Amino acid sequence: MKDFSTRRNKIRRWLKKKEVDCFLVSKGVNVTYLTGFTGDSSYLVITADKDLLVSDSRYTTQIEQECQGIQKEIRTSKTTTLKLLCSTLRKLKVQSVGLESHDISKLFYDQLSKEMAGLELVDSHHVVEDFRAIKDQDEIAEIRKSIDLAERSFRVIRESLRGDQTESEIGNNLEHQIRLLGGDGCAFEPIVGVGERAALPHAVKTGKRIEESSLVLIDWGAKAGLYLSDLTRVLITGKPTAKMEKIYGIVLEAQRRAIAEIGPGVSVKKVDDAARNWISEAGFGSKFGHGLGHGLGLEIHESPFFSSISSAILKPGMVVTVEPGIYLPNWGGVRIEDDVLVTREGAEVLTSIPKSFDQARVLLP
Q1: In whole angstroms, what is the distance from residue 66 CA to residue 190 CA?
Q2: DSSP alpha helix (H) spans, the chain
Q3: From 98, 120, 137, 208, which residue has the greatest number of CB atoms within 10 Å?
Q4: How far is CA 351 from the centre of its chain?
Q5: pTM, whole model, 2 decimals?
Q6: Which residue in 295, 353, 354, 350 sits closest to 321, CA to CA?
């Protein structure tokens, strides 16, 4: 069983530095990151010398199986989770508590303030997320597994493409194939856009058929255990046009330039600018409106985020997506996305599906 105490000790060092008595973890994925617990509706309380999981009787056995060594406080039907949490904090005799203010509701904050009058509530947003941004070797290995699942599944789907298949069918087939290969399903609802619908960065799948256009964009990922992957490829399923090749080439070069900039100590803005400036110089700057990419791991979108307005700096162990795109209404869109590990020397592209324009062409039966 994995030892999560190293991660919780990072929180303890944060508590000491900030002179806060206790940290309350309310966001489910952060509880998982710090304990291995995969249930929900639970809170993790961390002090200088204690770890307590406040949960309910549904998870008594699961906590014992997933979180050996962590003390648990189990709610019965005679009380509420909030009251049990407050009782736990009183027993700990803490004077201040850090809250994940980006996760909790105003109602929860108000109720906690009322129940625990005199307790100092400290805004502690994204503390765990900042630690999560840098993956350890176990996490990187899990991400590699999720990428492998995604790529193997995509190859099967690509080889079996038919003109009468719909966007929805392709997305459903990806989910099915990932599970057949031993994965836990898709990392997110796959995006499949045929023809002009590829101009919608987050297109919702429809009954539009592959044969209705010569271009299809597929954005998908797999879940392996707790970790996720995220890829995008554009396939040319009919006669390629000069415009297709031009747009595709611009996006591919933009991605190449961005990946070439990735390394420790590099600002996310510099990487974003490398792709964005190239697309702008080609005359399509207004057609690339989203950020260049994002971190991924337990969540599909997590820190860091590539942006022209961010001051974040890349560090070894970060895993990020690089996904420039050009979207032309009533024509279509091209986005190419790979997952990249920031190393001590520079960057390692973890994804390996071919992506040249010629390699994007598919002959339908």
Answers
A1: 30
A2: 5-18, 28-35, 60-66, 81-92, 106-115, 127-132, 137-159, 167-180, 242-261, 268-281
A3: 98
A4: 15
A5: 0.96
A6: 295
How crowded is residue 360: how many other Cβ atoms within 10 Å of its Cβ? Answer: 22
pLDDT tens, residue order, the chain (365 aa)? 688 999 999 999 999 999 999 999 999 999 999 999 999 999 999 999 999 999 999 999 999 999 988 999 999 988 999 999 999 999 999 999 999 999 999 999 999 999 999 999 999 999 999 999 999 999 999 999 999 999 999 999 999 999 999 999 999 999 999 999 999 999 999 999 999 999 999 999 999 999 999 999 999 999 999 999 999 999 999 999 999 999 999 999 999 999 999 999 999 999 999 999 999 999 999 999 999 999 999 999 999 999 999 999 999 999 999 999 999 999 999 999 999 999 999 999 999 999 999 999 999 99
8 Å CB contact between 335 and 350: no
| CA distances (Å), origin 168, targets 204, 208, 209 | 9, 8, 9
Domain spanning 5-131 has what CATH number? 3.40.350.10
Cβ atoms of residues 320 and 133 within 8 Å: no
Long-range contacts of 318-321 (CB under 8 A, 24+ apart): 318/133, 318/134, 318/135, 318/342, 319/135, 319/140, 319/143, 319/295, 319/350, 320/262, 320/293, 320/294, 320/295, 320/296, 321/230, 321/293, 321/294, 321/295, 321/296
- Whole-angstrom Cα distance, residue 260 to residue 134? 20
Asked if 73 contacts 81 with a C-beta cutoff of 8 angstroms, the reply is: no
Q: One fold for both 5-131 and 137-360?
A: no
Question: Is 137-360 CATH 3.40.50.280?
Answer: no
Rg over alpha carbons for the chain, rounded to the nearest Å, is 23
- For the chain, domain boundaries: 5-131, 137-360
Residue 322 half-sphere exposure toward CB, CA atoms < 13 A? 33
Residue 214 DSSP class:
S
